[in-house]
Design a protein that fits this description.
five-stranded parallel sheet, alpha/beta, Rossmann fold, three-stranded antiparallel sheet, 52% helix
Length: 235
C-alpha cells in the first residue's frame, strides 16, 4: 500500500472538497468513498432491489462495477452517473447501503485496492478507523451543526434540488445520530486522528494547515526510517 491520508467526519464538514483540494495540493489521487456508496445505492434503486435485505444487496454489489475517474466523475458499469448519484432519492436511500455488512466488506476491498497502487487522500466516515488503520495521517473534520447545514443547503440550491434549511438541518441531525449509533463502522475519530474544526475557516486556510501537517509527518517518517538500524542516518 502506498501513502494514505484519511479524512473522516460528519456530513457538511467539508470532507469532499477538502480531500479533493488536498489531493491536488499533494499531487495524490482522490478516493471519494461517498460516491462509491451512492453509486451502489443508485444501482440498487434501478434494480428495485430490497434495500432491507443484506443478501439482495450482496448479490447486487457482486455484479456491478464502480469506477472513480481522475476528474471526479463516477461510472456505474461504464455509465457516467456523477449527477444522478447526488439526487435526493439516492441520498435518502444510501443509509440502507451503508448499513449493509456485505456491501461494506465489498467496498472496503475496492477502497484498499485503489490505494494499493497510488498515494491516496481518502474521505468518508470509517477510513481511519476501519479501512486504513495504518494510514500515514488521519484527520477528523467537523464544524458547528448549523454551519454544516448551511453548507449542505447551499449545495442543494446550486444543484437545483428543492429543500429548506430547516429540513436539511433536521435530516443532518438524524443522519449524525444514525452514523454515530451504527453497529458497523460507527462514525468516530480514530484514536490517533487529528480532530480539525473548520467552523469559520476559509478553504485555503484549511488546506494550508492540513498540507503543513502532512508534510511534517512525511519528514518525520523519513527521519524515523533513516534512523532505523541499517539506515543511512548519521549521528
Amino acid at each position: 500500500m502506498r501513502n494514505v491520508i484519511t479524512i473522516d467526519g460528519p456530513a457538511g464538514a467539508g470532507k469532499s472538497t477538502v480531500a479533493r483540494l488536498l489531493a491536488d495540493r499533494l499531487g495524490w489521487s482522490l478516493l471519494d468513498t461517498g460516491s462509491m456508496y451512492r453509486a451502489v445505492t443508485l444501482a440498487a434503486i434501478r434494480a428495485k432491489a430490497d434495500l432491507s435485505s443484506d443478501r439482495a444487496l450482496e448479490e447486487l454489489v457482486e455484479r456491478i462495477r464502480v469506477e472513480l475517474l481522475p476528474n471526479g466523475n463516477v461510472l456505474l458499469d461504464g455509465e457516467d452517473v456523477t449527477r444522478e448519484i447526488r439526487s435526493i432519492q439516492v441520498t435518502s436511500a444510501s443509509r440502507f447501503i451503508a448499513d449493509s455488512p456485505s456491501v461494506r466488506r465489498r467496498l472496503v476491498g475496492w477502497q484498499r485496492e485503489f490505494a494499493s497502487i497510488q498515494n491516496t487522500v481518502t474521505e468518508g466516515r470509517d477510513q481511519g478507523t476501519i479501512v486504513f488503520p495504518d494510514a500515514l495521517r488521519k484527520f477528523f473534520l467537523t464544524a458547528g451543526e448549523e454551519e454544516r447545514a448551511r453548507r449542505r443547503y447551499a449545495q442543494h440550491l446550486s444543484q437545483g434540488q428543492p429543500s429548506t434549511f430547516e429540513q436539511v438541518l433536521a435530516d443532518q441531525r438524524e443522519r449524525d445520530a444514525r452514523d454515530r449509533a451504527r453497529a458497523i463502522a460507527p462514525m468516530e475519530p480514530a484514536r490517533d486522528a487529528v480532530v480539525f474544526d473548520t467552523t469559520g475557516l476559509d478553504l485555503e486556510t484549511v488546506i494550508d494547515r492540513l498540507a503543513e501537517n502532512v508534510t511534517a509527518r512525511l519528514s518525520e517518517r523519513d527521519h524515523e526510517t533513516r534512523s532505523l538500524p541499517g539506515g543511512t542516518c548519521r549521528p
